[in-house]
Every structure is written in C-alpha cells, then in structure tokens.
Amino acid sequence: MEIRVDHLTRVEGHGNVLANIEGGKVQKAIFEVVEAMRFFEGFLRGRSHEEVAHIASRICGICAMSHSSCSVQATENALGIEISDQTRMMRRLIMDAEMISSHALHVYFLVAPDLLGEKSVIPLVEKAPDTVKLAFRVKITAYDLAEVLVGRHTHPVSVLPGGYTSMPDRTALAQMKDRFIAMREDMKVTTDLLKTLELPAFERETEYVAIQRPDYYTFYEGDIVSTDGGRVSADNYLEALNEFVVPHSTAKHSRWNRDAYMVGALARVNNNWKQLHPEAQRVMDELGFKPPVYNTFMNNVAQFIEIVHALEDAIELMEKMLAQGLKDEEIPPITKHGQGVGVVEAPRGLLVHDYTYDENAKLVKANCIIPTNQNYANMDRDLEALAAQITDKPQDEIELGLSMMVRAYDPCISCSVH
Amino acid sequence: MVSKPRVAFFDFACCEGCQLTVLSIGEPLIDVLKHVDIVTWREAMSEQSDEFDIAIIEGALNRDADIPRLKKIREKAKIVVALGTCAALGGPHVSANRFTKPELLKHVYGDNAEQFMESEAGEIRPISAVIDVDVPIYGCPINANEFVSVLKHLLLGRPYRVPNEAVCYECKLNGYECVFDKGMICLGPVTRCGCGAICTSRGHRCFGCRGLVDDPNINAARDVLEEHGYTVEEIIGMFQIYSQQAPKVKELAEATAESGKKKGSEPWRFGSTT
What we know:
The complex is a heterodimer of chains A (418) and B (274).
Chain A: E1 2-5, E2 15-22, E3 25-33, H1 40-43, H2 49-56, H3 64-79, H4 85-115, H5 122-127, H6 129-150, E4 159-160, E5 163-164, H7 170-182, H8 184-196, E6 207-212, E7 223-226, E8 231-232, H9 237-240, E9 242-244, E10 253-255, E11 261-262, H10 265-272, H11 278-286, H12 299-324, E12 339-346, E13 349-357, E14 363-369, H13 371-389, H14 395-408, H15 413-416
Parallel strand pairs in A: 6-11
Antiparallel strand pairs in A: 1-2, 2-3, 4-5, 6-7, 7-8, 9-10, 12-13, 13-14
Helix pairs in contact in A: 2-3, 3-4, 4-6, 4-12, 6-7, 7-12, 8-12, 10-12, 11-12, 13-14
Chain B: E1 6-11, H1 17-23, H2 27-33, E2 37-41, E3 54-58, H3 67-76, E4 79-83, H4 85-89, H5 101-109, E5 135-137, H6 144-156, H7 167-173, H8 198-201, H9 218-227, H10 232-239, H11 247-259
Parallel strand pairs in B: 1-2, 1-3, 3-4, 4-5
C-alpha cells in the first residue's frame, strides 16, 4: 500500500507524508520536505549589525520574535554588547508572549479540528463559537502584548542589538497585565476541554533536548541539555547538534547521542518540568501528564502546559517591570568583534544563531539551526513506529494518523528551509 | 441568490507571516469572511478546491520549478492578489540575487549542494515577474486593515487605490519626530506608505519594506539626504533588503551611477550598508 499526502495541510510550509506498507510491514515512512530555499545565511552576509535582526526575524512569520531575540543575542555576544537587566526582562517577556501566541495557534486552530473530527476551524465557528472566540482571545491577547512591547508580533519593530529604539508605554503595559490576569479563566475552560479530548495512543521513547538554566524555566539563554545526559554551553552547540543532509529533504536533519532527538514543548517539559510555575504544574497534574512522557501526540498537551506557565511568568514579569518603572536606556557600545552564538527556545524548540562580524560590524558568516530541522529525523522514526502500529487499518485512517503525527510536532517548514 | 465569491490562499517562498497577519485580525475578519467562501487555505484547513474566483498569493518565486504551479493559479483565478512584499516585490530573500544560486547552495549545503542544483535552479523574483497581478498588497508584513479594505473593495466590485504617498506623509500626519533629525538614515521619503509609519512610531527608521512610491521625488529626496550628509547610493543599498527587483530601484541605481554623483566613502555608522 502506497501512502502519499502531498502538501500536508494545517502546517506551516510545504511537505509530503510518504509511506509504503507491504504485507503488514512498513518499508518506508518519511516526511519529505519540498519547500523552496531562501538562503538567509547566504544573503545576511555584508549586512550591518543593526540590520541583521530585522532581516533574520523574517525567517519565520510565526516565531519572528524568537528569531529576532536569538539574533540580537548572537550579535551582542559577537560584538561584546552588555545588555541591562531591563532589556533581559523585556526579552523574557517577549518570549512568553510568543510562546502563548504560537502554541495557541497550533493547539486551538491546527490540531483541535483533528480531535473534534473537523477538517478546519471554520465549521467550529458555528458549532463551538465560544471556544473559537476563546481561541482568538488567547492568541490576540498575546499578539497585543507583543505590540505593546516591540510594536508588532510579526515582525517586531523596535528591537536593536543592546536594547530597544523605544520602551513600552506604561499605561498600555498595565492594561496588558490586567488582560493577562483575566485570561486565567480561559486557561480553566481549556483545561476542562482538554480533559474531554482523546489523543492517539502511541509511545516511543527518544532523546529530548532543550536549554536549561539553574534559576528558572527558560525560553531565553541557557546551556543545551539532553535527557540522555550531556550538557554543553551555547558556544559549543556544534558538539551537540550535528546537522546532516538527507536526499528526501531540502531541510537538514540533526542528531546528538542517538540517531535522532526531539525538541519543542514536550522536550522542554521532559527536561525542565520541575521549574514550571506552580500553576502550570497543577494543570499538568490535573491533565494526568506525568513527565517524562513518551507519547509524541502529548506535545500538544505540553504546549498547553507551557501556555499556562508563560501566562503566569508574564504576569510576574509585568508586575516587576511596572513596579521598577520603564526607563529609556542608551544602547551599550560595541567592545569587540568576532564570533557570537545566541540560543533561545522558540515555540517549536531549540534555536541557534551563530554569527561572525568584521571590524566594521558587518556580518561575514551566519549559521542558523532551526528547531524543526532538529525534529525531522525523530519525526521519520515516529512515522515508522506509528505506521507499524496501524498497518491493519484502512488507507484513509493511516493517512490521517501519519498526518496527525507530523502535525503533533507543529512543524515550521519554511523556517526549516530558511 | 448570487453565489459568494470563492477565495483561495496560496503560498510560495516566504515566512507565511502575511497569512498569519490575516489570521490575527480576529473578529473583523470573521465578519468579512461571511461574504466569501474560502475554498483553499492549506495552512488553515484540509479541504482544497481547484475552482476559485480570487487567488490570494503569498511569497516569492524562488525557483523555476514553481512556475507551472503559479501559472495554473493565474489561469483559474479571475483576480490575483499579491499578499505582501515577497509576492509583490520579491521580499528580503531577493537580496540573495547578489550571489549566484550555485554559490548560495554551496554556502548553505557544502559538499551536498550538488543534489539541489537542478531542483532549485532559477532567479529569485516576485510573482509579478511571471504572472499578472491585479492588486498588490505591500508590506513586510502586510497591514491587517489594508487587507480587510482590499477584500471589501473586491467584494463590492470597486477599484482599490494602492497608497502612493511616501511614508513621510503618514509619519508627519502622526507628528512623529523626523528620523533624520535623530541622526539616522531613513527610507521614508521615497517609500510607499500604508503602514501608518509603524517603524518610525517606535523610534526606528523606515526600512522600505513597501517598496518605492510610483514616482519618487528623487530630487527632493536627494536634497534631504545631502542636507544630512548621505548619498543616494546609500539609500539604494538599503532598498536592496526588500526590493532589488523593483525596476525603479534599478533605474535609480543606473541613473545615479551615470551621474557620477558620489561622495567620499564614509566610516561605519548607524544605518549604512554595503
């Protein structure tokens, strides 16, 4: 039996699910990436340091703020620019906003239709109007926070290496804090909804990779760690993330301790769940999520747990910033030139930007490692394992099952073929 | 009853941020969508149809292999909307054309570059280089309000007037401080508005993401630049971030090269490029 789903829907970018099942045996099950290349690493060369984040943000429309934050972090490390505590708080808050908006898009708009037996969110506008309104509210509240902080979610406006061209308006930020507090009710409703949904049964233990800090659950800065053991500092990312090229993909694949590893919400929760906000841990218990979890479909539940965490973390950060007052700060000076690495946790997982600048602060070399690329090898292993589990099902059910597996990863395909 | 216009979304090489901007409109979008049938939207729904009236296309054409798909969409559609700067002008990756495709492939894929040489061949260009576009919506990303406005015009059968004033116009209307006065170089004097001067509203400069206005007042722009010590070449270098393909930018570059009007090279400063 030949399975072929061309240009899989409800994912970002272009890819095909291919499988071949003969006599109850899986001959092949892969995700083929056919996205056109854009060559960001090629054309970032020659650009000045204050243009680089502006351009790099355009690698991805969904995780624009992750790319922008990772980009300025790499540039700051390369040029020896020391950021202030206020700038660091802004970066953490921006990552929280992006985590909520991106996970909400995936959980409510792209995955929920599968679980509710629909082909898109559009029929749900009539059938479950309150849920659709809730979904828009969560997503747009997070977008609005991004707008208050940096002008726009896609693509941020006021970001510079070293700081910001302008700081958020205090009244607007205070209003955002109140709207975030009001969103707690939406979290309760979603938790109850999730308890009624059944995710496909599947289990395959693999290696989970994320960044980690000693002091808090991090989306911005940290060491790279693995559930297989191993810790490397961001500068030494090449020791952990080995990229390689395969024939069926215009996007590169990665491996570390084994033939494949996973990044993203499930990988972060499996590595760092003890640092989650108490409210997120409570929701985790309520949903019966006991880390480490080896069901890839549970990545979507992990995303929701992270929405709860990011919401609480954002409220605390906003309270702190409002109490301290928002100060317009000078952009700190460039003190050196050379190579610098930035690491963040984008919604879909570990993201690395590695830049080298010359003495005129012009970029001479760029390497960007995208979360979705790191997941492709693991995705192929999961597709094989899932296909083997459902070989006796009718073709359309196998197609749906394999498509749902790819969607569970929330792949960002055009990002991966930057 | 008159049937609703059928709308289809398509994407080529881009970050898909413009489609996402459409999704982020929320309730005003739901209101407009009541008057159309969305028949294809791969990013949001699983149903697909080859029968549509309005094709909304995001992204640039990054390889020849995608030309047949693009032409097929044009044949089927009554109206083609270019959604965002990638589709309308080429977008940021168009600046990769400073290098050749084989060089870029070798740079990114090293020894494995050979396997992609054939499938990825072709210049990076806006969709308008290959098919006729009826309405361009500029911006990186698009302005959500402009998208709703374009859709309303199409539904009412009225022509949409693409904004054709410079960003300076919107910037001044809003009373923002002039970027040049702050010691930065800005593309506002020659860039098409419609964005509400969002970048200068946040204290940044205009990066020219909506491309040049139809008839840029180059002499006035040159005066502003000279007053602040910049050259037209510097502005064209900055324009290459978004619209190297825009014929006007090319013409300007050539005209400036011919006039030989060039100032001495400057040390690095905020906003300068290669």
